[in-house]
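Have a think about this chain, tokens included, and walk me through the fold.
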Amino acid sequence: MVDKDAVQHDAEKDPHDWVSGDEPATGPQESYLSTLAQQAHEEVDTEGLSKADASLKIEELKEKTGR
């Protein structure tokens, strides 16, 4: 049996450690970034963005917009 209180909730890998982190951002990532950027009143250039960098920017914008 696993003690749920002992499990760390931040066990996610750093996006730069992802096997596919250097691959180009996906269409859904770019779309979500555009939506979040509009809500945050920011401009985000998704051209040439990696999956890892897109993920980090998404998290940043989610915090900024309260999502």
